[in-house]
């Protein structure tokens, strides 16, 4: 998840309003979902179903989800 809306191409609004709950018990709304590309080859270098959460200050990545998408960490 990230707050960097400019990293997305085709933002999709979630079907229902959802929130992320942080360790400090704050909740943050998920505004959009999309794939985020990196590198030169957009199709092979993208993380799928990334949440755009405008109120977070740091990017968060799940290593488990990256591995499930076929990437190596």
Helical segment count: 1
Spatially, the strands of the biggest sheet line up as 1-2
- Main pleated-sheet profile: 2 strands, antiparallel
Low-confidence stretches: none
User: Secondary-structure element order, as H and E?
Assistant: EEEEH
Helix content: under 10%
Question: In percent, how much strand structure appears in the residues?
Answer: 25-35%
Task: Tell me the number of strands.
Answer: 4
What does the average pLDDT come to? Answer: 90
Cα-based radius of gyration, to the nearest Å: 13 Å
Tell me the distance between the termini: 17 Å
Overall SS class: mainly beta
Shape call: globular
Structure overview:
The structure is a single chain. With 73 residues, this protein is mainly beta. 8% of the residues lie in helices and 29% in strands. It contains 1 helix and 4 strands. It has one helix spanning 63-68; strands spanning 18-21, 27-30, 32-37, 46-52. The strands form 2 sheets. It has a two-stranded antiparallel sheet. A two-stranded antiparallel sheet has the order 3-4. A hairpin with a 5-residue loop joins strand 1 and strand 2 (27-30). The mean pLDDT is 90.
